[in-house]
Amino acid sequence: MTDHGPVDDDARCPCLTGLPYGECCGPLHAGQRTAATAEALMRSRYSAFAALDEPYLLASWHPTTRPAYLELDPDQRWLRLDVLAVTGGGIFDTSGTVEFVATYRHDGHRGKLREVSRFVREAGRWFYVDGDVE
């Protein structure tokens, strides 16, 4: 464990960019920097689900759609993230979407979550707004 949370800084980041957690999502989770793109925010949120980082998930959720609290299941293990499509969400955009498939294991069974997530950038910071789950 490190000051970034339950993922070791030297371990491969759960979002599967190939970078170590301490160079990828860890600094975002620790509040040391913000996501530059909607995809980077989506990847950091996936890693936060994998690390059970509820405070980061709530802080990165747009205030107009953010729930009051989250109850993450520690028995659900997130295994893989595949980004399928990105629309907008770049460094000069104010909105964007990211379509992804996240694979997980729960109670000995594998499952997949497919979602098209919507993001907005306000005051230079990206927020998750909502998503359509398929």
UniProtKB/TrEMBL annotation:
InterPro entries (UniProt xref)? NTF2-like_dom_sf (IPR032710), YchJ-like (IPR023006), YchJ-like_M (IPR048469)
Q: Which domain of life is it from?
A: Bacteria
List, for all copies, the residue spans of the domain called YchJ-like middle NTF2-like.
Answer: 37-131
The family classification in the record reads: Belongs to the UPF0225 family.
* UniProt-recorded name of the protein: UPF0225 protein ATJ88_3519
Query: Mind giving the lineage of the organism this protein is from?
Result: Bacteria, Bacillati, Actinomycetota, Actinomycetes, Micrococcales
